[in-house]
């Protein structure tokens, strides 16, 4: 079933008007009632069209989104990359640009103003825009630890961007042209959910990271190398560090060294109490958890073989390779 067939009514609130740009915003959701109103109301004055792709939420996410005028389509979730690429391919997008947002993200006013002034004046060979990510954890901006340096290509010309198919850390690949950095404001990641949700989410993320690491050892599925060739320099450099340097270091030791780098050498301790919790959880616990899952997966494959491991992923984690 196509996106157009599945979409519901309710476009009126986001019809094109004064100040709106030729942008379609695509937002993936599952149980995001705490975030979805903030996300939609902040982006609505900027974009021509909003599409919410929901994975059968059990809360009021869909009702809120439809009530605010977004188009809503529901579809079973496999992973972020596959879900977003389906939306981009199946929904008939007539705008000049596509914007990808998560429900717990929003654009700062300064960034919105910059886009209003610069988007229409960009040369044709600029097909992607890189936004700087600002993470807010427990209502505190995580400024140090090297974390406030991440650039993400989140806005691109229709037809010029494709999400690489990975289980984790997927990025947009530009099929033509180049990307440039947009200044004036940030893309803000500010979750309002509790620590149980955060740790549950990162436990799932650690499993997906494990799959990507094990795939490099046992070729579970084809690797999409386009980001290595076409992404901006920072994305290529981070991918190199993860796949060559971090992946080649001893399990567990690499996680400890990474935390030391982030918390001490990159001054993560200056982020205060909230920063201590964030850097310990995200820069140490999370990476130790990935290592534990990689260690466990290697042992499973050694005893049972790769095919049995594929079946284990499907049964235990609902990951069908």
Report what the structure shows:
It is a single chain. This protein is α/β, with parallel strands linked by helices and 321 residues long. It folds into 2 domains: 1-103, Rossmann fold (3-Layer(aba) Sandwich); 195-317, no CATH class. It has helices at 3-6, 36-43, 61-67, 80-90, 109-118, 195-218, 226-230, 233-246, 253-265, 272-304, 306-317; strands at 21-29, 47-54, 71-74, 97-102, 105-107, 126-137, 140-141, 151-157, 161-163, 172-174, 178-181, 187-190. Strands 1, 2, 3, 4, 5, 6, 7, 8, 11 and 12 form a 10-stranded mixed β-sheet that branches. β6 (126-137) and β7 form a beta hairpin. The longest helix has 33 residues, at 272-304.
The mean pLDDT is: 89
- Total count of helical runs of at least 4 residues: 11
Structural class category: alpha/beta
User: How would you classify the quaternary structure?
Assistant: single chain
* Biggest sheet overview: 10 strands, mixed
Report how far the terminal alpha carbons are from each other. 23 Å
Bulk shape: globular
Q: Low-confidence parts lasting 5 or more residues at pLDDT below 50? A: 1-17
Radius of gyration: 20 Å
Q: List the secondary-structure elements in sequence, H or E.
A: HEHEHEHEEHEEEEEEEHHHHHH
Helix content: 40-55%
E-strand count: 12
Family: Belongs to the glycosyltransferase 2 family. WaaE/KdtX subfamily.
Protein name: Glycosyltransferase family 2 protein
InterPro entries: Glyco_trans_2-like, Nucleotide-diphossugar_trans
Pfam family, one: Glycos_transf_2
